[in-house]
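Input sequence (295 aa), recorded before submission:
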Amino acid sequence: VALERQLPYSMSVDVAYVGNRSNGQGANFNVNAPTVLGPPCAVAPDDPSDIDCPDISANGVNGLNSLRPYVTKINAATGQPFPSPLNIATFNAYIGFNKVRYNSLQISMRRPFRQGLQLTGAYTLSRTRNFNRSYTMPEFQDRNWRPTGRMHVFSSSFIYMLPWQTGRGSGGILKAIINDWQVNGILQIYSGSRFTVGADDEELNVTDNDFATQTADLVGPVVKLGHIGDPPQPGPDGAFATHDDIAGCLVCDNPGPYYDPFAWDQPTGQRLGTTTLNQFTGPGATNLDFSLFRA
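Predicted structure, token format:
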């Protein structure tokens, strides 16, 4: 759906709604992924990093494989596996289950080259959500929806011929120097892309991480610090400018975390973190390409 309007000064503007709804996009999916979490793990009271996760042998197969739909079955009478057992961790099938929802407002502006000036501009406000089966457990299906893409994107370009051009006015040395110059530019401004704050999944007991992605707990306000790039750090010897320094961004004006990292924490217990996939937005950017040349 679009609306176009002619404006004064040879300008025109388009305003449009653009949307897309897609179901059944094909993707590889492990149909032999477990559908439940493993058994709860034990955490040492005096050392949270000391985690002991027990195995499962409910149907005669040790470890997480016993939670998979297709595993070795044991003959209860003999205690031996049935002939030709299927005991594989990954059984990928190409299945059409992915979904995409895209909605956007798009505005564009144009001024054709006239009287030495040409302008273009475009702005998009959009929202994109994808469904991709990162979680196979039924109770976590709502987590498979996640936002993607950038919400705000603006771009503009211009061409301007300076008023002193060949054929205008009398000649001379000064005219020869200043005639026939032109400036061009492309300006781009866009918001940040989405990202997930992950966490260690050991206590979740998913082992190979093929059916659940652990995320962090949100424990405080998300404070934007605005730093970009990791600062260089001294190595184990504790001194800078030695062979074991940890590399960082040497050209960054103010390196460090963009967000305060203390807003997130590691989940405890056998549960998923309180945050979801792609819940947060990273830093945006502004870029200007400018040129001045003589035609």
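Checked by second reader. Residues 57-62 have pLDDT under 50 and may be disordered.
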